[in-house]
Amino acid sequence: MKFSIIALFFMSLNAMSQPRPRAEFAQQLYQQHDAHREASIQVRRFKHADIQPLIQRLHGQNGFTVTQLGKSIQGREIKLVSVGTGPVPVLLWSQMHGDEATATMAILDIFRFLNQDHSLGTEKREILSKLTLHFIPMLNPDGAEVWTRRNALGIDMNRDAAKLQSPESRILKQVRDSLQPQVGFNLHDQRIHYTAGNSAKPATISFLAPAYDREKSINPVRSRAMKLIAAMSADIAPFIPGGIAKYDDEHEPRAFGDNIQKWGTSTILIESGGYPNDPEKQYIRKINFVAMLSSFLAIARAEESQYNEAQYWAIPENRTLLRPLVLRNVEFKKANKTSLIDIAWDRREKTTEDLRHFYYQSQIDDLGDLNTLHGYTEVDCQGLEVKTGHIYPKYIKLLAQIKELDFKQMLEQGYTAIHYIGNEPLSKEPSPNFPLNILTGPDQRSNQIKIEHNPDLIFRKNGKFVMAVINGFVYQADLPWLGNPVVY
Question: Of all residues in the chain, what percent carry a pLDDT higher than 70?
Answer without folding.
Answer: 97
